[in-house]
Write a structure and sequence with these properties.
Distance between the termini: 188 Å
Number of helices: 7
Shape: rod-shaped
Number of domains: 4
Strand content: 15-25%
Helix content: 40-55%
Largest sheet: 4 strands, antiparallel
Number of strands: 9
Structural class: alpha+beta
Order of helices and strands: HEEEEEEEEHHHHEHH
CATH class of the largest domain: Alpha Beta
CATH superfamily of the largest domain: Band 7 domain
Radius of gyration: 55 Å
Length: 289
């Protein structure tokens, strides 16, 4: 009897331990605990710590309470001008409403990623399909990403999910037409550069012609003014001479000075001897005065 009692006692203790262990729910800081009763969600434990559930009747599902990374597969998207682009992207996301997440996605991360994949692809396709290939290539930064992320956020909230970051790792051309597109873009840029160069050369020639014309007109005007000043100077010079030698006495003095100047010029060189006839104009300087 004692053995039976001991066996019953140990069985009772084991049952208590099993019941106690199955009723304890430990929730860590990086997870949510979803308590289900007969398959239906009873409540959610969002705070870290120990809680309890009804053994054998209630079960526990765990959901991550941390930032998750989902790397999407590269996919083809069509631009507004019917050109194909390859888009490779990833997102950072987390669960903000575990109850809604569990109800809409059956507490499945893979279901969430599959749904996000569809949402992101549709958003990317809608944004890029309204943009030309050149605009996509030149605007692959903030504006394009912001437009796609806005569309994603508008849909993802209904699953209890918050999108933290959407980033495009690669937005490129397919390898079979990449070279052709690049060559076309280079040719277009060269044509634009040639147009700018021709316009610049034309404007420069106009400026040069205008400048040369202005210089010619300024030189012509300066020469005209110089001729006028020279003529006025000579006229003034002649007037002064006429005024200075207008009477007979001044004319005689002027003739005397001119005779001395002529004598001085004729006595250049080493020989200072000068022979003059009495009727020579120069001799009249010394004779006949």
């Amino acid at each position: 009897m004692k053995i039976v009692k001991k066996a019953v006692f140990f069985i009772f203790i084991a049952v208590l331990l099993i019941l106690g262990a199955s009723s304890i729910v430990i929730t860590y800081g990086n997870e949510y605990s979803i308590i289900r009763q007969f398959g239906k969600i009873d409540h959610v434990v969002a705070n870290a710590g120990i809680s309890f559930k009804t053994p054998f009747i209630q079960s526990v599902d765990k959901l991550p309470n941390q930032t998750l990374v989902y790397d999407l597969s590269a996919s083809d998207v069509i631009t507004a001008d019917k050109k194909t682009m390859i888009c490779d992207s990833y997102i950072l996301w987390h669960i903000t409403d575990p109850l809604k997440f569990a109800q809409t996605l059956n507490s499945s991360i893979s279901n969430a990623e599959s749904r996000l994949d569809t949402i992101i692809y549709n958003s990317t396709k809608n944004v890029i399909s309204s943009t030309t290939q050149d605009q996509v290539i030149t605007g692959r930064g903030g504006a394009l990403v912001a437009a796609i992320q806005e569309n994603i956020e508008a849909v993802s909230g209904q699953y209890g999910i918050e999108l933290l970051t959407f980033e495009i790792k690669r937005l490129d051309l397919p390898s079979d037409n990449k070279d052709a597109v690049y060559e076309r873009m280079i040719s277009e840029r060269n044509n634009i550069a040639a147009t700018y160069t021709a316009e610049g050369s034309s404007d420069a020639q106009i400026i040069r012609n205008t400048t040369d014309k202005e210089i010619t007109e300024m030189l012509s005007e300066a020469e005209k003014q110089a001729e006028i000043l020279i003529a006025e100077g000579e006229a003034e010079y002649m007037r002064i001479l006429a005024e200075a030698y207008g009477d007979a006495s001044r004319q005689e003095f002027y003739s005397f000075v001119r005779g001395l100047d002529a004598l001085k010029v004729s006595m250049q060189g080493g020989n200072k001897t000068l022979i003059l006839s009495p009727d020579s104009p120069v001799a009249q300087i010394f004779y006949g005065r």
